[in-house]
Design goal:
The protein is of the alpha/beta class. The protein has 11 helices and 12 strands. It folds into 2 domains: about 160 residues, Luciferase-like domain (TIM Barrel, Alpha-Beta Barrel); about 140 residues, TIM Barrel.
Length: about 300
């Protein structure tokens, strides 16, 4: 199982991201992930990071699809992949109704159809630089010419069965968040693997992202996780995964405890079928942050 790390840049500057990615590469992590929420544009950041940091895989987690036409996203991704020498993993997802409709004023109608048609435009442009597709929501007949570009990796943030099946058919796998080990083992992994087999596709990547903290104050860390990650327990798609897990909230699936406990819980995910783990560190003190990073680095040597 490959171990990656999420950005936790405190200042949000490009120099901060570059320094983080450089440290992650130096520590031996397989991948470095940047979220696309309300801060800097993740693909712009990673294209720049890719020019400065030469080896580590660079991933977006995840670019919302509704606000960006798939042709525009293909242009961005191919450009960023050219800048990074072919190390980009493009993570895309639907986002959430509250973001797309309430904040952006766009329709969140028929999300599975939306993603199916989106991928019908995006994938040919990433793979062949041309597309001719006419659907209910997207019609695109166009081509791209981006020097030095190659197809990036592509994963879809998929939680339910329909989206997991679609990710298996059209992408390289999935990236999950707020999905605990029991759900990964009983729902995510078997569903996406079975779909890939049905469609003659390669074994998919299953990239699991979870909060991580090495600490002697487990109760305090869980209370902090409950506060820091509270919004995810209120969003319907994540709420469904937490309910499947039998978890009251995100704090219940955070990986918290001693260095040995945290290391063992992360390592056990490989047995659940997870191919990549992406750690979201949330230590509150310098000691917790250093201990958390040390535990993650120790996993790289197993």
């Amino acid at each position: 199982m490959r171990i990656g790390i999420f950005s936790s840049s405190s200042d949000g500057t490009i120099d901060g991201y570059v320094a983080e990615a450089r440290a992650a590469e130096r520590d031996g992590f397989a991948s470095y992930w940047v979220a696309q929420i309300f801060g800097p544009d993740a693909l712009t950041v990673l294209g720049t990071v890719g020019r400065e940091v030469p080896r580590i895989e660079l991933g977006t987690s995840v670019v919302p699809t509704y606000p960006r036409h798939p042709m525009m996203l293909a242009q961005q991704a191919l450009t960023a992949n050219a800048m990074s020498g072919g190390r980009l993993c493009l993570g895309i997802g639907l986002s959430h109704k509250v973001v797309i409709e309430d904040m952006m004023g766009m329709s969140f109608d028929k999300p599975v159809r939306h993603m199916r048609e989106y991928l019908s435009v995006l994938v040919p442009l990433l793979e062949e630089r041309r597309v001719s597709f006419a659907g209910e929501t997207y019609t695109t007949h166009a081509g791209l010419d981006i020097a030095g570009a190659s197809r990036p990796g592509l994963v879809v943030a998929a939680l339910g069965e329909q989206m997991l099946s679609l990710a298996a058919q059209r992408a390289d796998g999935t990236l999950t968040w707020c999905t605990g080990p029991a759900t990964l083992r009983s729902l995510t992994v078997p569903t996406i693997r079975a779909a890939a087999e049905r469609h003659g596709r390669p074994a998919p990547r299953v990239i699991a992202a979870l909060p991580v903290c090495v600490t002697s104050d487990v109760a305090g860390a869980r209370a902090r996780a409950a506060e820091v990650f509270a919004v995810y327990g209120q969003l319907p798609s994540y709420r469904a995964m937490l309910d499947h897990e039998g978890a009251a909230g995100p704090a219940d699936i955070a990986i918290v405890g001693s260095s040995a406990e945290v290391s063992e819980r992360i390592a056990s995910l490989a047995g659940d079928g997870v191919t990549d783990f992406a750690a979201v560190e949330f230590g509150a003190t310098p000691d917790e942050r250093a201990a958390t990073r040390a535990a993650l680095v120790s996993l790289l040597k197993r």
